[in-house]
Amino acid sequence: MSWINFEEFADLSKLCTIRIGGKARKLYIPKNVEEVKNLLTEASLKGKKLFPVGIGSNTVFSDGLLEHFFVLTRELRKTKTWRERENFFIEAEAGVSFKTILSIVRKYNLEGFENLSGIPATVGGATVMNAGAYGTEMSDILERVYWISPQGNLRVFERDEIPFSYRYSPFHNNGFVYKVVIKLKASKKDIRNTIKKLLEDRNRKQPLNYPTSGSTFKNPIEKSAGYLLEKSGMKGYRIGDVAFSHKHANFLINMGSGKFKDLKRLIETAEKRVGELYQIKLEREIEIVE
Fold first, then answer.
1. Active site includes 285?
2. In the chain, which residues fall in CATH 3.30.43.10?
3. What reaction does this catalyse (predicted)?
């Protein structure tokens, strides 16, 4: 494998928004598609899992030394924009943040992204988990996905070829989303003002003053996860320095020196309580990497 920039014994707690986790034996930092292909091929040959790392807003790393092929997307941040009549397209590599997309949206007054604007994410991670908010999902604005298979082959998928569903894509734990094309529309509405109101609403409802991993569980069909957790007595419930927020029961927060063992115990306690009281099996939205 040709030389690719990497860090040894990288602190994983700095690579997720809840600030909990151990060390990565190696954290690779590719600069282009060819380096990503090489990493996937190498991981496949060695029988190891390749784990892309963006902002880490829905990820929790376990303690200790982790041996996966961790691939940080921070150098994959190229964008390209073009317009076709009323449609506006943004091509963005995996490491492009939603903040960058938001700046383009504001500049050109584009419609379609506003409901997603407050999510702390990169386009790669958001595509893999089909991130969503306020009734809009990433899959609603995607035109095309460039995906590299575990064997290192680049494939291009049009949106209608991809079976997305609620917080799911076929790319999860499978290969690497290298870049995407987002399709938006030039708008006559005041998109800046719409975004401002949505961000204010988000700040009111979510515990953004603590390190958090975002929504812990997916919403079941019967009731929202937040409602079930609150009615089960989990709102504000704390183990060590990890707690379910008083502000939003489905948000885990790190109140200072949170430990992975406490976080895992807290999640398992919540799952057991909701299961016993409501006969509903909560499905995790956050990904735990061990």
1. yes
2. 6-72
3. UDP-N-acetyl-alpha-D-muramate + NADP(+) = UDP-N-acetyl-3-O-(1-carboxyvinyl)-alpha-D-glucosamine + NADPH + H(+)
Question: Strand (E) positions, the chain?
Answer: 6-11, 23-28, 50-53, 59-61, 65-66, 69-72, 79-84, 87-93, 110-111, 132-133, 136-137, 142-148, 154-158, 176-186, 212-215, 238-239, 242-244, 251-254, 287-289
The residue from 19, 57, 167, 232 that is catalytic is 167
Query: Per-residue pLDDT tens for 115-135?
Result: 999 999 999 999 999 999 999
Residue 215 designated active-site:
yes
What are the pLDDT digits (tens) for 66-110?
999 999 999 999 999 999 999 999 999 999 999 999 999 999 999
The C-alpha atoms of residue 12 and residue 21 are separated, in whole angstroms, by 5
User: Rounded to an integer, what distance in angstroms lies between the CA atom of residue 219 and that of residue 283?
Assistant: 8
Reading the block at residue 64, the tokens are 């200790």
- For the domain 79-192, what is the CATH code? 3.30.465.10
pTM of the entire predicted model? 0.94
Q: How far apart are CA 238 and CA 230, in angstroms?
A: 13
Of 57, 97, 139, 215, the catalytic one is 215
- 169 noted as active-site residue: no
